[in-house]
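Subject: complex prediction, re-run

Hi both,

The earlier run crashed halfway through, so I resubmitted it with identical inputs.
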Amino acid sequence: MTSARAAATIEVMDGPMCCVECFNDEWLRDYVREASTEKGDCDYCEAENVAVVDVASLYGPFQNLLRLYAASDDGLGDFLINLIQGEHEVFNEELYDGGEADRLLDDIMGSGWDDDTGEPRVNARDLYEPALSQWMTEAWRDFCAKVKVDPEHEPGLPELLDEELGRMEVVVPKGSTLYRARLGFVEQEGEVAAELARKLAKAVPAKAA
Ligand SMILES: [Zn+2]
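This time it finished cleanly. Structure:
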């Protein structure tokens, strides 16, 4: 009976387990602490008898984080693992330096990968580029569409993006003209885009004729 019970326990824990010490990011560390229901030895770092979670439980937060990046299709960019570590210091530094963070990222993203979608499986050593502007544009359009129907609607941004929003804050010089977004804006979109294009053209130093 004892061995059958042990086998059943192993079956429940068949996915690789990572731990709170694998991560440097405070939000993720809290997330692991809250999601963990057991103590054990980590499959990635050296930690023993710590709060562990199945890597699959981290798929959601990492899927959100990876929306900030797009696979490079021109051979430029940087390894995905370098981008997210460089900008967010997601993983424990030793885990990153030793290369185990690559395996952890691959396993987290692999846990939710569905080959039926035709999307390639995420690989920590694939080349990626920041896609923040693309993503923010989509999120902004989505927010604009919803807030017109419901003025109380709040943008549904993942928590890991808070830091990115902070970075997008700018100090506006005194006396700058500010525009307020209003209903009907879309009807003038062409006009606004043309004005923006004129400003951008001015901002680029003109080559001497
Ligand atoms: Zn660990």
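Residues 157 and 201 are 32 Å apart (CA to CA).

- K.
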